[in-house]
Amino acid sequence: MKRLPTTLAIGFLFAAIPATAALPPKYQRLAELKAILESSEVQALLPDDQQVDRIEYVRPDLYRVSAGTCFLPVAIVKRPAPAGMVGPRHFDVIPGELDCPAEATE
Question: What span is annotated as the signal peptide, if there is one (predicted)?
Answer without folding.
Answer: 1-21
